Amino acid sequence: MKIPGTDAEFRRIAEKLIKSGHKAYLVGGAVRDTFLKRPVTDFDIATDATPQRCMELYPYAIPTGIQHGTITVLPRSKAYKVEITTFRTEGTYTDNRHPDSVEFVSDIITDLSRRDFTINAMAIDLATEAFVDPFEGKKDLASKLIKAVGDPEERFREDALRALRAVRFSAQLQFKIEAATLEAAIKFSGSLSKIASERIRDEFSKILLSRHPSTGLALLVSTAMADTFIPELRACQGVSQPIHGNKDVLSHLFDTVDAVIPDELPEERLLVIRLAALFHDIGKPACRREEQGKISFYAHESESARIARFRLMRLKFPNAIIDAVCHLVRYHMFNYDSSWTDSAVRRFVARVGVEAIPDLFELRLADTIATTGVPHSWAVLQELRTRIDAVIEAKQALSLRDLAVNGDDLASIGVPRSKEMGALLSELLDAVLDDPRLNTRESLLRLAEAKYFSLSRTKS
Ligand code: ATP
Ligand code: MG
Q: Do 256 and 356 fall within a single domain?
């Protein structure tokens, strides 16, 4: 069997084991994705060589998880990773997340039987190219089914993360979860609260990055898995919003996530925008008011940003991602119309920050696509975008660092370095946002003098 995606260097890495008299099987995602004709990014090899033996064979390997039998070998190109793991079986699980011990074994079948799903438990012998499929994974691939290896309840009892992985694979591959597997996943969904946040974060991110995330997200809510890490989602179910064609907030969130188009977006940006899409209205249930038959969600963007920060911190997302997501959520509500003055456009960009503009528009485009019948059509937003681009192009001052004066200049005319200096700089920026022609050293120093010394005089 020709294994696509494997190059000469991968062969060399595998041959090292084989030539030393060891077994080498391609296992896991690479086998599954090869059959599905999906791109293979990383390779897992299972072998009977002990971890120590592997380190001898590959002296430059990284002992990533050596106590569990895994080392990582990088090809010279560093284009992919090869993880080599000694055949193993796992001892009992007393905590729904870690085996109490792992034991190295000598055969591939035992190793495959500890894996999560049948489609992940197939192997190709790299010496003979023989295909090993004891749990009929190939058949489940053809039927588009996620099915646990062995007794589903036992598998999810051992490691509750597998329940979330079932949803992740179902979202990525657009497969159904087999009935008994789904039932067991639901039964153990509550045990996800015992799983390390980082493991949940990684699976959850993969769901958001999949082609049609709403399938996975809806499953997370219907199976109650989401209740363990974003319980606020459930509260959005059934909260209607008249201007959204009476779609509830939860469906609107899901539609918005789906509407973020991945085209050419680097993975991290796509994740940030999809997270922002998922959280952008999550504060609405808490902010819903009904007065004289009119429903409003005043200040929901701040509440949504608060929830996003809290949940993403608990999931241990990096700070840069959390800040970017919360910023987008906080600023997603803006109501542009053609009557905005140029000064209003500049103030908007100054408030949001030039760097956040492209992602904010991606989010707003998705929000607009997901909302039918809103008066704010995309064409109007396009007009705002064109005006913003003109502001940026003209290199007009949009932040303190663009001002023609700085703290040293103000100090030179006698303004003390204090909170007041900061306030004065902000006032100067304000004036420049109104009238960009003021952004010269001369004009600003004159203005600063007038503002600061007249203020000091009135105080004394
Ligand atoms: P991806 O393309 O996302 O990397 P993958 O199938 O390679 O998908 P990994 O998380 O890299 O997934 O795991 C590699 C393999 O290890 C899986 O295919 C599966 O056989 C096994 N595996 C991973 N996590 C678990 C788990 N929690 N329980 C059982 N087996 C697992
Ligand atoms: Mg993998």
A: yes
Ligand 2 is an ion; its neighbours by CB within 5 Å are 29, 42
Residue 120 alpha carbon to ligand 1 centre in Å:
7
List the beta bridge partners of residue 146.
177
List pLDDT tens digits, range 9-46. 999 999 999 999 999 999 999 999 999 999 898 999 99
CATH number for the domain including 133? Answer: 3.30.460.10
CB within 8 Å of 460: residues ≥ 6 apart: none
Residue nearest ligand 1's atom 1 by CA: 29
Q: Which pTM value belongs to this model?
A: 0.91
**Which of 229, 247, 275 corresponds to the end of one domain?**
229
DSSP letter assigned to residue 417: S
What is the residue with the minimal CA distance to atom 16 of ligand 1? 28
Q: Which domain holds residue 219?
A: 151-229
Q: Tokens 């509750």 appear where? A: 160
Backbone CA torsion sign across 92, 98, 102, 106:
positive
Split into its structural domains, the chain has a count of 4
